[in-house]
């Protein structure tokens, strides 16, 4: 029986003591690990003077976590550098923010080698390995160099950028070549998968077998699949009904004093389109003065990656814009934007979603976007709110019954807010049902089963027989 080795930048321990990976993703990976048995490996989040490769093993409920500390230079170059200042902006189409530094690329490579050295002895012959996200693209290749012949899959949680954008990355080709060490690569949407295939074909001369979903290059072939992540719908529905959620719901209803609440919940990240969202909301206030005091926007935006300058800039910019909008439009008894820079427990968020007439989810680019799905899952089926969703979120493919908008267009955001406020209940219910059904069906357990089934079906590297 094959064990599972999950590898991601941060790890979620069975007892919850590592807070790095949270929410639905952690739940899905943890449940896969419990079923199959295995190890979850990643960075501890801690810094050490000198890298030793010493692994901190913690055995818990059904699986083991293995974490390793990194040096300060590793954290600067690999995590704050290449992951968050190079790949994240580039993969979100923001080459204006992407920083191309050889030091970052070198640090990224070094840390991936260090991860490979550290995790390799933990992998047994029959194990299957599942690597998560853009922090660890070359890790599969590094494991192969260290003799690992196991099945290795990779899942990308972000978009894959169009090939012309990716071509601006100095080491793009080398990086993409390392992906051919995997047996399976998963993307959230067909668009991201096609962009990957475009790069492989047009920039590298790879051969694409569309029927089989296989990309061949340099004597290796890798299967590519579309595998959209979902939420733990059952857990979220239950949570939306627990005491904390109900208390929050009541509190929000009281503090709304009959006004319709519009809610946004996002990590404070430039990819989430918050400035553009505020501009769209202000446009609505200006175009519809009669509706103005009937609504307010609650934007919850817990800060993230605060040591990176572009994140400090977006934080300052948003403080400026929200302050300006409130200054220009607020009245004695009404403030148009409640802008909150802290995180809340998930059940509190569920109560907030449920109390909101509109969920405003307008990323400029997003691999998937789980907030859109959580908003829908938390609604009252008898009287659901309306989701306004960016066309450029991966989630838009599955959520066509949302009001889809171009997040760069203040006019479209403004029009959608008006339409949502005026939407008859029957239409709200019909739209909500279509989305809720899909969220139930394609939940996070479906996601991980789809990926793991495809990984198990992949021929073993070197052509050996299927041994799952
Ligand atoms: C990446 C991709 C893809 C937010 N505020 C609080 C809080 N959250 C939770 C949300 C949601 C999660 O964080 C955010 O997930 P998203 O999917 O919206 O966005 P990213 O963090 O950018 O995630 C994304 C995802 O990976 C999975 O593949 O969908 O495209 O960028 O669950 O609820 N949670 C708590 N307090 C908060 O204040 N507890």
UniProtKB/TrEMBL annotation:
Protein name as catalogued: Trehalose-6-phosphate synthase
SUPFAM superfamilies: UDP-Glycosyltransferase/glycogen phosphorylase
Similarity annotation: Belongs to the glycosyltransferase 20 family.
Pfam families referenced in this protein's UniProt entry, alphabetically: Glyco_transf_20
InterPro entries per the UniProt record, alphabetical: Glyco_trans_20
């Amino acid at each position: 029986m094959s064990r599972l080795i999950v590898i991601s930048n941060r790890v979620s321990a069975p007892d919850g003591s590592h807070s790095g990976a949270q929410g639905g993703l952690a739940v899905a990976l943890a449940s896969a690990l419990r079923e199959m048995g295995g190890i979850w490996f990643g960075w501890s989040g801690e810094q050490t003077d000198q890298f030793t490769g010493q692994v901190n093993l913690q055995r818990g409920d059904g699986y083991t976590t293995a974490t390793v500390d990194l040096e300060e230079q590793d954290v600067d170059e690999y995590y704050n550098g290449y992951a968050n200042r190079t790949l994240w902006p580039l993969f979100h189409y923001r080459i204006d923010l992407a920083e191309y530094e050889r030091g970052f690329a070198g640090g990224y490579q070094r840390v991936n080698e260090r991860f490979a050295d550290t995790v390799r002895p933990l992998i047994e012959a029959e194990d299957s390995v599942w690597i998560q996200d853009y922090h660890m693209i070359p890790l599969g290749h590094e494991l192969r160099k260290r003799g690992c012949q196991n099945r290795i899959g990779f899942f990308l949680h972000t978009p894959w950028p169009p090939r012309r954008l990716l071509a601006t990355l100095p080491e793009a080709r080398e990086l993409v070549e390392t992906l051919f060490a995997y047996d399976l690569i998963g993307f959230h949407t067909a668009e991201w998968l096609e962009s990957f295939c475009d790069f492989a074909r047009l920039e590298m001369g790879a051969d694409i077998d569309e029927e089989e979903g296989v990309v061949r290059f340099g004597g290796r072939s890798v299967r590519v699949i579309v595998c959209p992540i979902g939420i733990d719908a059952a857990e979220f529905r239950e949570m939306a009904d627990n005491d904390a959620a109900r208390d929050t719901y009541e509190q929000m209803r009281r503090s709304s004093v009959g006004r319709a609440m519009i809610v946004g919940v996002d990590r404070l990240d430039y990819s989430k389109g918050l400035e553009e969202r505020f501009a769209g909301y202000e446009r609505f206030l200006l175009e519809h003065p009669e509706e103005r005091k009937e609504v307010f926007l609650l934007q919850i935006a817990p800060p993230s990656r605060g040591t990176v300058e572009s994140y400090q800039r977006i934080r300052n910019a948003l403080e400026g814009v929200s302050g300006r909008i409130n200054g220009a439009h607020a009245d004695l008894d009404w403030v148009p934007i409640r802008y909150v820079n802290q995180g809340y427990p998930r059940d509190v968020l569920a109560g907030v979603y449920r109390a909101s007439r509109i969920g405003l989810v307008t990323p400029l680019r997003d691999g998937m976007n789980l907030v859109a799905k959580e908003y829908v899952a938390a609604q009252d089926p008898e009287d659901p709110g309306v989701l306004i969703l960016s066309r450029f979120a991966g989630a838009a493919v599955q959520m066509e019954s949302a009001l889809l908008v171009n997040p760069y267009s203040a006019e479209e955001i403004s029009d959608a807010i008006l339409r949502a406020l005026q939407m008859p209940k029957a239409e709200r219910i019909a739209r909500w049902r279509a989305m809720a059904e899909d969220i139930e069906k394609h939940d996070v357990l479906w996601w991980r089963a789809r990926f793991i089934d495809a990984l198990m079906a992949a021929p073993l590297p070197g052509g050996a027989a299927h041994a799952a």
